[in-house]
Amino acid sequence: MKYDIKDINLADLGKRRILWADKDMPVLSKIRERFEKEKPFAGLKMSCCLHVTAETANLVRTLKAGGADVVLCASNPLSTQDDVAASLVRDFGIPVFAIKGEDNETYYKHLESAIAHSPNITMDDGADLVSEILKNHPELYGQILGSMEETTTGVIRLKAMEKNNVLKFPVIAVNDVQTKYMFDNRYGTGQSTLDGIIRATDVLLAGKTFVIAGYGWCGRGLAERAKGMGANVIVTEVNPIKALEAAMDGFRVMEMIDAVKEADIICTVTGNIHVLRKEHFEVMKDGCYICNSGHFDVEIDIPALKELAEEINENVRNFVDEYVLADGRKIYLLAEGRLVNLSAAEGHPASVMDMSFATQALASEYVVKNKDKLENKVYVLPEEIEQDIAFTKLATMGIKIDQLTEEQKEYLSAWEIGT
């Protein structure tokens, strides 16, 4: 079996972490039990480009249980948990191409290894795998039944591909499914981003001014949790509806050029490029921490920061680089501008990834079952699949909910009854 990981001897720790996460992923476990019996992916090859974490390990275990021939590569150079990668190779027989801290050349070499698997189904977190296939591997177009996309940034890219008529196979926008974005993006990103910031800096959030760029599901989750830890939260936005929502949720809303003058900590969660740039660095407070929890390392204009810096001191703490400007001010960049929650911490808790990865698994099954009906477009899952995941999650939490009576069903489907 071919693979490329840091050290196979890390596997013991990795296996413990995988099984620890598994106990908090009961919905995915139930799906895995069914897949083992039904083998929906028998005879199919799957290439997954995801964050190589303990939670992801349980997803690829589930796909393999369903009969798939699976390989896994990293979707981010800093998010790989090397011990998990080792355990997947040694204990679960799944080839992995991922090393934490790999350079750009190695990252794309690992992508090519996943493509060389000649997949029938792909799974992405950021759309790098699909992008590489579309640009460089036309020989695979006809054999790919579909792809799954995990994150907001990837969905944005895929919708652009569809609009430009370059998408050659159907894609399920898993990120746009309620059982993903309402929980993973909000509760997962909110908690894990703060976890990464605190681990990297040891900062006390209470009393600090915390600026959050973007008030989508990730931004609002982060804002809620930062506020809950005593931070004074400022939100910046370009969307007037989201800005209004942030204001009515009790947060200060202002332009970034003004917000950075007050900020002790700034985190970008927009999915866009150069949200923090030269004019912002020039007026930031001395000692400001800046970080990103959007998918790619482009939200902070790092080249511009390097040009302004008179001195750069790397790793003054783990995952913290110090940029000293000409006037003596210091700006601290966390995790090289990459996903701070996965680089400096462990990513989302398993219990919330349970629903996201259950959605991934069922989306893959949906693609196989409907391969003759799907066009080369970006789709969301049917609502009944979301409902099934939500009901199963509630059951594992010991929560029961009411059901509509026949009278209520009739009332909701009728129009005659008025005031």
UniProtKB/TrEMBL annotation:
Its cofactor is NAD(+). Pathway: Amino-acid biosynthesis; L-homocysteine biosynthesis; L-homocysteine from S-adenosyl-L-homocysteine: step 1/1. Its EC number is 3.13.2.1. Its main location: cytoplasm. Binds 1 NAD(+) per subunit. This is Adenosylhomocysteinase. Residues 185-347 form the S-adenosyl-L-homocysteine hydrolase NAD binding domain. HAMAP family: AdoHcyase. GO terms for biological process: L-homocysteine biosynthetic process; one-carbon metabolic process; S-adenosylmethionine cycle. It holds the Pfam family AdoHcyase. NAD(+) binds at residues 151-153, 185, 214-221, 237, 272, 293-295, 341, 348. CDD domains: SAHH. The keyword Ligase does not apply. One of its GO terms (cellular component) is cytosol. Belongs to the adenosylhomocysteinase family. Substrate binds at residues 53, 125, 150, 180, 184. It comes from Deferribacter autotrophicus. SMART domains: AdoHcyase, AdoHcyase_NAD. It catalyses: S-adenosyl-L-homocysteine + H2O = L-homocysteine + adenosine.
